[in-house]
Design brief:
33 strands, seven-stranded parallel β-sheet, single chain, Immunoglobulin-like
Length: about 375
């Protein structure tokens, strides 16, 4: 289906399968929106969902005029039950297009994007919101139906995977995680990222943890933002976490915390259950220390990790620390200390919007995607 106009609605279709939604009948494109704006693929009402499977591309939104399009409530890469693999080569491809939305922060807006070779590819895209989706699981969000790659960001800027609003986080599991190959300002916020074959969040193309550097002066994907270094975690009826962060001087940074039933084999990440977030501001030397207590109970022996996000550049996951026993029950975040100065506590995640758009796409992203994709074999768990 080819769309070049504006304000169209595509809903209730099986595109790429037989009439029962269980056997492949592939097309090159399921839906291609080329320089069209404000179109909706799927929707939140009963019967609005599309099944977009077994095609070369499930959904492609391309061109600088392709803006304000919504992809919501669909099954992309599964059969009609949302439980079996009928994958596309690429589930959703946003190419050089600004300000589009995949999913949303309600259950009705959620897409299931699973069983594809590549789940979501943002290439030259700006201002994309990818929120509330199941990426790599079945329709229940619990059973593996992985993509080879979960989310790939290539030469793309100021996009957000997840968000700070309730319901904005995606489940990204049983894939190769989130990979930022090139581009900056790509926030990866409040998601549940676990059981992936590669790093949960990878900045670069080599499946290697990017070490922190003094002053965070290096450049690269997401400016190679330094991750926090956690020094302790105490579980029980509440959870207290301490750590430090070294990054650019006098910078506001959102630090997100996660619990995990298992630590990644790299020793870093992933981020299975979002625990909460806090803001820290580095001093003139680029340093910040923090202690935060959340009301959520975790058991001794669980693993705690964190990420840092500055100017919407999210880091890789921190090294895991193992929770020790010993916290007492509390309500709300009871105390936050940054550089030994107590701050007012928040009862929930801090909300901040990042909406700057940069209209840029480069041929280098094509090469980066090709290199990364050739390095992968189709992986299932």
């Amino acid at each position: 289906m080819w769309v070049e106009g504006n304000g169209n609605v595509i809903e209730g279709n099986f595109i790429g399968t037989d009439v029962m939604g269980g056997t492949a009948a592939p097309n090159n494109h399921g839906v291609l929106v080329l320089d069209g704006s404000d179109n909706r693929i799927g929707g939140v009402n009963g019967g609005a969902a599309n099944l977009l499977s077994a095609n070369e591309y499930g959904v492609e939104i391309a061109g600088t005029g392709a803006t304000g399009n919504l992809v919501q409530g669909n099954l992309i890469g599964t059969d009609a039950t949302g439980t079996l693999d009928l994958g596309n080569s690429t589930g959703v491809w946003i190419l050089a297009a600004p300000s589009n939305v995949v999913g949303g922060d309600t259950v009705q807006e959620r897409n299931v994007i699973s069983g594809n070779s590549m789940g979501i590819l943002l290439q030259g895209a700006t201002g994309t919101l990818v929120q509330g989706n199941f990426i790599g699981t079945d329709v229940t969000g619990t059973i593996a139906l992985g993509n080879s790659d979960g989310v790939v960001i290539a030469d793309a800027y100021q996009n957000t995977i997840g968000g700070t609003a309730p319901g904005a986080g995606n489940i990204i599991a049983f894939n190769a995680g989130v990979r930022v190959l090139a581009g900056t300002g790509n926030g990866i916020l409040s998601n549940s990222i676990f059981s992936n074959a590669g790093l949960g969040i990878e900045l670069g193309i080599f499946d290697l943890v990017t070490p922190n550097d003094v002053g965070d002066a290096d450049g690269g994907p997401n400016n190679l933002q330094n991750f926090p270094v956690l020094t302790s975690a105490t579980g029980g009826s509440s959870t207290t976490i301490a750590g430090v962060l070294d990054t650019v001087a006098n910078t506001l940074v959102r630090v997100e915390f996660f619990t995990n039933s298992a630590c990644d084999t790299s020793g870093y990440g992933e981020g299975e259950t979002f625990l909460g977030a806090m803001d820290v501001t580095t001093d003139g030397g680029g340093h910040a220390s923090f202690v935060v207590t959340f009301p959520a109970a975790i058991a001794a022996g669980e693993f705690v990790t964190a990420t840092a996000t500055a100017d919407n550049n999210t880091s890789e996951f921190s090294q895991c620390v193992t929770a020790a026993d010993g916290a007492s029950a509390v309500g709300g975040i009871v105390e936050v200390h940054i550089n030994a100065e107590p701050l007012a506590a928040d009862s929930g995640p801090v909300t901040r919007g990042f909406a700057a758009l940069l209209a840029a796409a480069s041929a280098v992203s094509v090469a980066l995607v090709a290199v990364a994709f050739r390095a992968r074999r189709r992986w299932r768990r």
